[in-house]
Amino acid sequence: MALTSTTTRPVPGAAAASPPACLPDYHGGSLVNLMASVAAARGAGSAYAPLRGLDAATLAHARNIVLILIDGLGYNYLNANGRGGALHRHLKGPMTSVFPPTTAAAITTLHTGVAPQQHGLTGWFTYFREVGDVLAVLPFRSRHGGSSLTTMGIEPAQLFSAPAIFDSLACPSWIVSHKSIVDSDYNLFHSGNASRVGYDNLKHFFQAIELTVKENREPKYVYAYYPELDALSHTFGASSPPVAKLFRKIDALFEELLEALAGTDSVVIVTADHGFVDVKPEETLELANFPRLAETLVLPLCGGRRVGYCYVHPEKTRQFEDYARELLAPYADLYRSADLIERGWFGLGAPHPRLHERIGHYALVMKGNYAIKDWVLGERHHVHLGAHGGVSAAEMLIPLVVAEV
Fold first, then answer.
1. CB 346 within 8 A of CB 355
2. Pairing of strands 307-310, 362-366
3. In terms of domains, do 296 and 268 share one?
4. Is 254 part of a structural domain of the chain?
């Protein structure tokens, strides 16, 4: 599948930004295009083109469409470490995630069928002017911690706006997710009318998929989400032995699932929301070590460790640009956030009415394997040896695995 790379105008006076290694191909090669194909196969429309390389007739004629999302399973990792396994045998090639390639942005694309340009969720930490706070989107709580916003009378429907794709499909839909999040505020809103199934562990995950497919002979769409590979990659690094061990278990259980589903007239698709880069501790920049830069900001850095959205005090714009050029040029490219919208990084078409508010005035897009972190009071300090959200191929490319059973 073709990939799209482009350059975006650097901030005037700043060092020229290096061309991004890999950007989303929203014209037919990205995660949102996969969802356009799923929607078309189940009688729904999409503003995005279908995915190249995925046979529309095969999807449309299948009794069951099963989409398995293995959080953090990048294409590069699967291609390098999966040879001889079931996942690699059914690998059709790479496609791109969305920008930024983070769980909050990409998973919302799977739930809504639209890119971040339309659904407006742009990172793990997102500023919502409606509540005057930076939120951790998926837990649906303030960044510094605490209870869900629903305990304060704020409902997901007041902050989320893109309708669930499941409600537009002309067949029953099912969501298989870990029991700890299957009924979360985020999931409840984005699941629409889909039935939800919780599971306990990896073996139960694949068993739940099998039982859901075999629930009845009606055509159905099953979306199944597994997060643990991502969690281990953050903690130990994507190239670590714990990640390799879990990957082998996933691969073996996937092969068992295909055997169990033989004869069910199903198309089983496996993909991811993003890949990973490994980050050495010394490659993580602490904003506290750049006080002259920090004092120009009116909010903490938003987004994530590989793309930081900067909200700059209007009287300190020149100071911010100068300091970013002077202090961060070896580690990050600096962009005006509005330019990223203009150049189509977040998607195609009309943007979400609050998209500009949610990406700040500037974006720091980290170079190499560098990451940046800004802490707030009440936030638990932790090290991430694996990170994602940037525009390297390792983070942006995700696998398209397709098996007919």
1. yes
2. antiparallel
3. no
4. yes
